[in-house]
Amino acid sequence: MGVAAPDPAPTTPCPGPPPTPQHYLGALVAGMSAGTASSLIRVPTEVVKQRLQTGEYKGAVTAVRITLRSAWAVHAGLHGACQCATGTRCGPH
User: What are the boundaries of each domain within the chain?
Assistant: First the structure.
């Protein structure tokens, strides 16, 4: 009839002490850094791509220039709103 499957090899626990939370901290920081770095590249690239696809700008250089200019304007506007809301200077300026 059928051939019986061999017994699986016995599993043994990994040698050494169990991992501590500090072991996971490096991986956590590395993952967060990688996610931040990829977002800093991917998001502006996607914005420029979408603006080019809609025909909003004639060329890539113009799209990048105007997108960066508008991003700085938003940053400056948020900075001004923070000053108005708190009555103090915000940030390291």
Answer: 29-86
